[in-house]
């Protein structure tokens, strides 16, 4: 994953990392938790946004930043092993029905942000094990969050 991130981030001068998820649904919170953990550990070229379940509410803020790259971190039902994480270009997964663990209109969000900023958009998706109501993440997804956090720290500008 780190090499994929490094390749995707080539030429990045301004990056938005958006954490998506529901904080009261166990593993669904992983995107927000990854972004929380990056605060104070990234350069000024990186803007961190904890979108929770409404990334569309942050479109104006993202446009104002004018990023070259937008990375969304989220839990997604992809049929992988729990805790497995992959980086996808937005086009790779936007046509897959019901990848999100909530009703996020990813296609509309990604298309809109790309159209208004010209940014490259990717999704770092983590397979959840449990998305029922609960405050903690499962061990598999907690480990995935740590791996993603380390990969981002090693690759963000």
Topology overview:
Blueprint: H1 2-8, E1 15-20, H2 30-38, E2 46-52, H3 59-65, E3 69-75, E4 85-89, H4 90-93, H5 106-117, E5 120-126, H6 139-155
Parallel strand pairs: 1-2, 1-3, 3-5
Antiparallel strand pairs: 4-5
Describe the structure.
The chain has 157 residues and is of the alpha/beta class. The chain has one domain (2-155): Rossmann fold. The protein contains 6 helices and 5 strands; from the N terminus they run αβαβαββααβα. The protein has a 5-stranded mixed sheet with strand order 2-1-3-5-4. Helix 2 (30-38) links the parallel strand 1 and strand 2. Helix 2 crosses helix 6 (139-155). The longest helix has 17 residues, at 139-155. It is globular, with a radius of gyration of 14 Å. It starts with a helix and ends with a helix. The model has no long low-confidence stretch (mean pLDDT 91).
- What is the helix content? 25-40%
- Secondary-structure element order, N to C: HEHEHEEHHEH
Strand order of the largest sheet: 2-1-3-5-4
CATH topology: Rossmann fold
> Strand-residue fraction?
15-25%
Question: Would you tell me the structural class of the helices and strands?
Answer: alpha/beta
- Unreliably modeled segments: none
Whole-number radius of gyration?
14 Å
Distance between the termini: 16 Å
Shape: globular
Query: What's the pLDDT, averaged over the residues?
Result: 91
CATH architecture: 3-Layer(aba) Sandwich
Q: Quick one: CATH superfamily?
A: HybD-like
The major β-sheet equals:
5 strands, mixed
């Amino acid at each position: 994953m780190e090499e994929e991130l490094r390749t995707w981030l080539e030429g990045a001068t301004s990056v938005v990392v958006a954490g998506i998820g529901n904080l009261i649904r166990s593993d669904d919170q992983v995107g927000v938790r990854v972004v929380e953990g990056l605060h104070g550990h990234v350069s000024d070229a990186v803007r961190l946004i904890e979108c929770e379940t409404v990334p569309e509410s942050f479109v104006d803020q993202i446009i104002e930043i004018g990023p070259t790259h937008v990375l969304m971190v989220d839990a997604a039902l992809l049929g992988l092993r729990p805790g497995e994480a992959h980086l996808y270009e937005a086009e790779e997964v936007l046509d897959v029905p019901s990848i999100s663990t909530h009703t996020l209109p990813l296609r509309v969000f990604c298309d809109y942000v790309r159209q208004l900023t010209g940014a490259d958009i990717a999704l770092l998706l983590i397979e959840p094990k449990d998305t029922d109501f609960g405050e903690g993440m499962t061990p598999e997804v907690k480990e995935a969050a740590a791996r993603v956090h380390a990969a981002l720290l090693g690759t963000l500008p």
